[in-house]
Amino acid sequence: VHLVESGGGLVQPGGSLRLSCATSGFTFGVYAIQWYRQSPGKGREMVASINRVGAATYYKDSVKGRFTISRDNVKNTVYLQMNSLKPEDSAVYYCHVPSRSYWGQGTQVTVSS
Fold it and tell me: What is the DSSP code (8-state) at residue 55?
C-alpha cells in the first residue's frame, strides 16, 4: 500500500496550492479518504473528507469556502485545492484512509511572506 502526497511548498498569504495524494495497492474507489494536517506543537487535525464516490464532503470550519477536496477514482488520486491560504494553514498535510489506517508520508505547506 502506498499513499504519496505532493504539491506542497512555500506560498504567500492569499495564494493557492493543489495537493495530490496518489495511491496504489488497495481498492481506492471503495474507501472514503481524508486530508489531515499537523503543525509543530499541535496534534493532527482533519481538514477535509470525501466519500468513496465523491458525492459527500466535509470540511473543518476554518477552511470552508477556501479548500476543496476531490477525487479521481480512475487515477486513484485524491486532491486538495487550497485557496486564500493563511499563515495558520502552514502544516504538514497527510492523506488518510480511515477504515484501513493508511497514511501517507506528508507534504509540507508553508504560508509566509
Answer: S
109 with 39: CB under 8 angstroms?
A: no
The total of other beta-carbon atoms located within 10 Å of residue 56's CB is 10
Q: Which of 97, 11, 10, 5 is nearest to 46 (CA)?
A: 97
HSE toward the beta carbon, residue 100, CA cutoff 13 A: 18
- Return d(Cα 62, Cα 81) in angstroms, integer: 15
Q: What is the dihedral of CA 90, 47, 14, 104, to 10 degrees?
A: 60
Over the stretch 6-54, which tens digit does the pLDDT of each residue have? 999 999 999 999 999 999 999 999 999 999 999 999 999 999 999 999 8
Report how far residue 77's alpha carbon sits from residue 70's, in angstroms, rounded to the nearest whole number. 9
DSSP 26: S
Alpha-carbon distance of 43 to 4, in angstroms, equals 21
**Residues 18, 82: contact at Cβ < 8 Å?**
yes
